[in-house]
Amino acid sequence: MAARLIESLAAPFLIGGSYVEQHSSIGVVVWDATRTDNDEFVQEADVALYEAKREGKGHYVVFTPSMHQQAISRFALTRNCATPSRRARSRCTTSRSSIWRRPR
Fold first, then answer.
1. Which of 85, 46, 62 is nearest to 102 (CA)?
2. Could you give the CA distance from residue 29 to residue 41 in angstroms, rounded to a whole number?
3. Which runs of consecutive H residues, i.e. helices, occur in the chain?
4. What are 56-98's pLDDT values in tens digits?
5. Domain coordinates of the chain in residue numbers?
6. DSSP assignment letter at 70
7. 1-63: which CATH architecture?
8. What is the DSSP letter of 4?
9. How many CB atoms lie within 10 A of CB 61?
């Protein structure tokens, strides 16, 4: 269903005589009748959406519990790399990329 929705949204449409293209990403969470925390449900959808956006335009990702811990780890890394360092150059590394930061 998500793939069909992305395909439908990708079709160019006419606005004011010009064709406009848009691309979308979708985060999917499977609803479970035992859920009682709607905020957690929305957070999980947000994490899945973030992962879909990381994969590029036109993707969807279904939330898995391991995504939550990965998102927390990335947030901590980003926060730590953004904190001014006493060193002239600090290096923050993830499994996919390296971030170099020079304090002002």
1. 85
2. 7
3. 2-10, 38-55, 65-82
4. 889 999 999 888 777 777 666 566 666 655 443 445 554 444 4
5. 1-63, 64-104
6. H
7. 2-Layer Sandwich (3.30)
8. H
9. 20
pLDDT digits (tens, 9 = 90+) for 36-67: 888 888 889 999 998 999 898 899 999 998 88
Length of the chain as a residue count: 104
3-state helix, strand, coil in the chain (%, to 5): 45, 20, 40
| Rg (the chain; Cα; Å) | 19
Instruction: Print burial letters for 15-48: b (CB count within 10 Å at least 16), e (below 16).
Output: eeeeeeeeebbbbebeeeeeeeeeeebeebeebb
Q: What is the distance between the alpha carbons of residues 41 and 55, in angstroms, rounded to a whole number?
A: 22
Contact yes or no for 90/81 (Cβ under 8 A): yes
Tokens, residue 76:
């901590």
